[in-house]
Amino acid sequence: MVDSDQSHSMVTDIEAHTRRPLPLLVCAAVVLLAGCANARPTDATATLLQLNAAYDRALLDADSVSLDSLYHPDFTYLGPGGEVRTRAQQIDALTSGRVDVLEGKSDSIVVRVYGTTATLLGRFTGRAQVGTDRFSLRERYSTTWLWDAGRWRLLVEHGTVMRNPPADSVPP
Fold first, then answer.
1. How many domains does the chain have?
2. Mean pLDDT for the chain?
3. Cβ atoms of 53 and 106 closer than 8 Å
4. Is residue 108 domain-shared with residue 132, that is, in the same domain?
5. pLDDT of 108 over the 60 cut
6. Distance CA 73, CA 54 (A)
């Protein structure tokens, strides 16, 4: 039989043992959250908008070094005609002269950040040339960016040609 002093001592021992993990868990959570806070920039939206503008410049300049830096190693391009290009194929298409973006810029950009992944929805308007064929370019695009190795990299791009878009076709 256990007397009341022993019973109180056992309860105190049990409480002490069950409470010890809580401070350890709290400390572990704080360390984990502090590490996550450093996992991506505090203002990812502004950074992604800057990267998107740098991407526009790289397209206009046919800048293979910038494209190589912006594209994730697993980058995939999905074109308006259904074509699929790897990172190497897209860099080659944009820098070889086969596809020449003569002028253009993005606008109506909506950025959504989901932890270490982000999507940008926007519109690109400009002029391009493929071979000897010059044309106006109006495209809606979506891009997926991934926070990888300490920076945002463009993982997937999809473009859709706009034909007579309604004036209110800006994404929400």
1. 2
2. 80
3. yes
4. yes
5. yes
6. 18
